[in-house]
Amino acid sequence: FRPVVLSLNQITRSYALKSDLKIKWVRPEKIPCYKPEKSGDLQAMPKLAGTELMKGFRESKELETANEHVRNLFSIEHNRRREMVEIFKDDMVRRVYRHELDYGSVEAKLGLMTARIRSLQEYMEQFPRQSVVKVQLKELIDKRKRFLRYLRRWDYRRFEYILEKLDLVYKPYPTKFHWITRKDSLRKLTDIHCEQIKQSRLEEYRQHLEAQQIEFLEKKLSNLELIRKEQIECQVPVTVEAEQIKAVRKQVEELKRKREAIAESRREQEDA
To answer: Signal sequence span per UniProt (predicted)?
Structure first.
């Protein structure tokens, strides 16, 4: 039998070892698409007092002089939730309609859809397992987004007016969809971590060089003075100008002055 020789890669699985980097990835919380955070609704459905009359009995003269118990029978508080939703729809349409009988323009349709979406969102908060209502709400949000995309393309002023009046934020579809995976997220976190290490080491190296800067310049100044003196004594062409020596000496004095100011400010902070 031939002896079987295992390679080093087969013995040690270095690619599967746990990383020593202090990087922790937590999967982001999934937010359903029908939530206001995703749909773009900045306000929820308002809470009415309950004493308002139903939509068809607001202008009734008989109820103005009727008994209190009779008025309660026609108030929102003692009727179905649908009556309150109808009042909310009228209020949203009145914010953006073109005239009093307008229920067919794009603005009025967007107001009706927004009122319906917010009422269904409130309903889903109470009954989150209603799958039929959930599907209806998703379809309404997508339909409103298509209407807003149309307005944004062909009439941007009206688009901004609608967003302001209905308290909406337009969130377009992403141009490129990608799944949130642990592998890709760890790659990004590793790149960020490596960049932070790189910047911190560069900063340490810069501070180390700045600490040696005065000593280096003083040595440079003494060498320049010595070279100039020897060139003058040997009567050879002088390559080191006096202005160059003055510039180096001025630079050394400025650095010393800055170091003293920084040290003094640190002492004041420690005393305070």
So the answer is: none
